């Protein structure tokens, strides 16, 4: 006999107060923790990470709003009725599995009716379900689109997805930073006398005899097919080597910075700032990625055997991205040889957007973002379905299904965060233009202020030509370098090791 659940008017007020107090206490703790992290980012001048944290909070608010909508619309959605013939299609379980788990009556009728009498005889006999929830469409000979209990289970899935969204953001950033730590020692090496001697600008060498040439100008580089195969496996064994880092650093400086600034420019910190800017994109969830996540839910249908192919799609995408990034480095080496077999000084690579797919370096970031989120989504779905329906259920009832989902989830997360993302952070600097993160936050803010003041001065010059010169705001004249405004910042940060010569106009942001 089913037992009638108590409503709030039948529940002791102290029990309600205790539950509300615990929920409020946990929520306030989380809020203060996020506020502490935000304050710490501001104190450390981590503007990009602070904005990334704000974006994560926005995504969590979106998930909370979705959960709130499910609460409000639970009854209306559960009263949407569809024919039984339609309701029997696209189930995660086979018909035999549903009969074995729920019984033939439940599967055929969509519900199982019992008579329930309250012991006090205060309530009249009513019909209730032996399972959780109640199908109000049964009287019409139909089935609910999603039952009330099904919507409750969606609430739990949204919570699990929110937890995994935060976890994958933390793991992604932590693994990427761990991989890039060794780049600091490479950057320090560029300030030594030994490095200056080894890269003597007056020294002539064959391109293939340089360290960069020996790595990329070999027998495997003569054919596009063999070069792709080599680059595919190279990402697993030293995806970013010292020689690649130093050569790409030299090429970036020669292409974008004034002569003589190589020894003072910190390329590693520039990459770190750029990666933090890209991290703001990675933690967000675009509408397109949400649509792809919904399609993932659609594939968990009996007969599709999605466990045999779905977890491998993100793996294939990230492996192709890693091979493409290695291919770009190799093509930079081939361009050096195309210009001549003899090089003077260190090999100079020539950056260009044409090396990337569709001429868009940011497209690779979209693919990395897509792989990271879909992988986190699949892991969240696996944990949720295990919690709701035990380890072996209709979504993964075979041992190989469970093994594939767990192993692929861990492998893709490590491969994408520890190997591909740092490789992207380095290679994406080989685009045609440099990024605004070439300046640290203080310099960037000063330049933006300079730009705003210059625009204001220009506007006053056109609209109020009769204004006395002494009453106009003091601004730099056209042709003055922004470096004059930044003189006071020269020794405030270790980041400011870049020297710039006078330029006719400030860089655009």
From TrEMBL:
It comes from the Eukaryota. Keywords: Calmodulin-binding, Membrane, Pathogenesis-related protein, Plant defense, Transmembrane, Transmembrane helix. Its main location: membrane. It is a multi-pass membrane protein. Residues 463-478 have a biased composition (Polar residues). It is found in: Membrane. It holds the Pfam family Mlo. InterPro entries: Mlo (IPR004326). Residues 454-484 are annotated as: Disordered. The chain crosses the membrane at residues 14-37, 154-175, 279-298, 304-325, 363-384, 404-427. May be involved in modulation of pathogen defense and leaf cell death. The C-terminus contains a calmodulin-binding domain, which binds calmodulin in a calcium-dependent fashion. Belongs to the MLO family. This is MLO-like protein.
